[in-house]
Amino acid sequence: METIYLAGGCFWGMQKYFDQFPGVRETEVGYANGPDRAPTYQEVCRDSGHAETLRIVFDPQRISLADLLRDYFLVIDPLSVNKQGEDEGIQYRTGVYYTDEAQLPVIRAAFRLEEEKAGAPLAVELAPLQNFFSAEEYHQKYLEKNPGGYCHIPQRMFHLGD
């Protein structure tokens, strides 16, 4: 198994989106790359410096990191700074955070491809994971529990396998 951390705006939609892919074994929403202490959701909303982030544990025999990153770029605006959809603030920044430097060549290749498509430098952070704190339980699988909840990701993107 491998793990990657993706910040893509509101983590509710990111979790629902990535849960649909075969090979994704586990997902968890949380707060990453902010000050080195666990924040509450309210602190994150008051600019604690953490990004709403999705931890993805995946089976590279079933889904590659390159495929996960391609899927990631399908549902974010990679040129937007601290904003995805109607959500705005530092916690909604985009980022790819890794714990295994062996993943860097694949990540950098994905970034180069997206920059070529966009014709501009990406606003997506690329950095090692500094920290990750699990979000409160009510945020886990939020859109499964609350199907009418807001998300910047279009509903059709949650049903790519249908």
Would you mind describing this structure in some detail?
The protein is α+β, with helices and mostly antiparallel strands and 162 residues long. It has a single domain, classed as Peptide Methionine Sulfoxide Reductase, Chain A (2-Layer Sandwich). Helix content is 27%, strand content 25%. The chain has five helices and eight strands; from the N terminus they run E-H-E-H-E-H-E-E-E-H-E-E-H. It has helices at 11-19, 41-45, 65-74, 104-118, 142-145, and strands spanning 2-8, 24-32, 51-58, 83-84, 87-88, 94-98, 125-128, 132-134. The protein has a six-stranded mixed beta sheet, covered by helices on one side. Strands 4-5 form a two-stranded antiparallel ribbon. Helix 3 (65-74) packs parallel to helix 4 (104-118). The two termini are 26 Å apart. The mean pLDDT is 96.
What's this model, at a glance?
This protein is of the alpha+beta class and 162 residues long. The chain contains 5 helices and 8 strands, in the order βαβαβαβββαββα. Helix 4 links the parallel strand 6 and strand 7.
